[in-house]
């Protein structure tokens, strides 16, 4: 089973033999029964043998020095926080007999040492060899973009399962094989964990694997060697500039996916679409609602509980009705429709199934009060995401719109005033609160958000305690008001400076509403 390791104080923060941006680790606790000769694992990899013998068998590849193994291969990754080379002795104590490094090291004579230029990059190649290139044996769909990845993958998975296909899902909320749900720690797992997961999917007769592909994963070689049948571009708006530095770098990272795919599906309404189109190795399929596209949506109607539009493809028109409100629903379903169609599902079947498609937990998740107001929980944590959901609410709101949101710490701080401005522009009342402040001071994050909020006359209140802010908003609401709780969506934790605590927006709302009866 794949698990995140929790302690009574939250997620373990002891360092692995690899540095990552947060102490959330994706660990495979199930042992495999693979036994492979080392020289076969090293096929087509450029390396230098510093010491030892490659004519030996290994039965496991690890990058976490704490894992006990017999005849395992340990990869020393240089991460953003820690350097795996510092943990080599621990890996050897725990049974590793082969070490892959990028620095010169001298170890005991019974240890084989392989030197490569970039251990992170080589880990993907080693994993593909060790697991016998499993992604070549299933249909693989990769979805990338700032917003819409999770919704698109969920909708597509539902369509395929309704057509009796066995599906694997890898993404922000969950990893699953069929109905078996596995915990997830990051949008796209490390390359080693990813290939292990593909291998398990193949063993369990998965027909189609659908994966959210993050820009970090593309830049950090996590998806190297994946055999993508279909690649999807949803959109690109400001996010992750703390990692990429500039929007151009962020866009370039996303574009890497489309040189890896046989079929590419591109949103032509996004300003970065041309970059994605130029990266495609084959003729792309386009979709949109504003610019001419292969699949085009027109006659769009957005209501409080559904979205309707006409799908135009190949001179044919099909009516689409989806029980999820918002223009973003049009884009997300267009993605899913095209993918499903290219995977063999009839358009008429797809249209019929979309009438009852289920939303994603924490994505425009609706709660109704006995006093006549509505509450929406959404994961919107980027300027574009927040604006999209608030625009959708404004299309059907009958009264006040009360927004509760914050911004994450140790992340792109340039978006904070932008999101403050957006919240005030589309709301009648705003509560600025904490999201996941991490190592930053909540008050400083809120101050930066407030700079944007001041650009409008919309009244706002600062309440650093998120639970208190939510309860204040719920207490204020009247009949026909809509409250948006934005930023955390499906998350069931809050990351504070002194640790991680249990926190669930939906739980707080449900508990409050139950007391109204």
The rounded Rg comes to: 24 Å
Q: Considering DSSP H and I runs of 4 or more, what fraction of the residues is helical? A: 25-40%
Largest sheet: 11 strands, mixed
User: Strand content of the residues, in percent?
Assistant: 15-25%
Can you describe this structure?
There is one protein chain. This protein has 517 residues and is α/β, with parallel strands linked by helices. It is built from 16 helices and 30 strands. The strands form seven sheets. The chain has an eleven-stranded mixed sheet with strand order 15-14-13-16-12-17-18-19-20-21-22, sandwiched between helices. Strands 23-24-28-25-26-27 form a six-stranded mixed sheet, sandwiched between helices. Strand 26, helix 14 and strand 27 (460-462) form a beta-alpha-beta unit. The two termini are 41 Å apart.
Write the layout of secondary structure elements.
Layout: E1 2-3, E2 6-7, E3 10-11, E4 27-28, E5 36-37, H1 38-41, E6 48-51, E7 57-58, E8 60-62, E9 72-75, H2 88-93, E10 96-101, E11 112-115, H3 119-130, E12 139-144, H4 149-162, E13 167-170, E14 175-177, E15 180-182, H5 191-203, E16 208-212, H6 215-219, E17 228-233, H7 241-244, H8 247-255, E18 261-267, H9 273-279, E19 285-288, E20 295-302, E21 307-313, E22 316-322, H10 327-342, H11 347-354, E23 365-368, E24 374-378, H12 383-396, E25 401-405, H13 415-426, E26 429-432, H14 442-453, E27 460-462, H15 466-476, E28 482-486, E29 493-496, E30 499-502, H16 505-514
Helix pairs in contact: 3-5, 4-10, 8-9, 10-11, 12-13, 13-14, 15-16
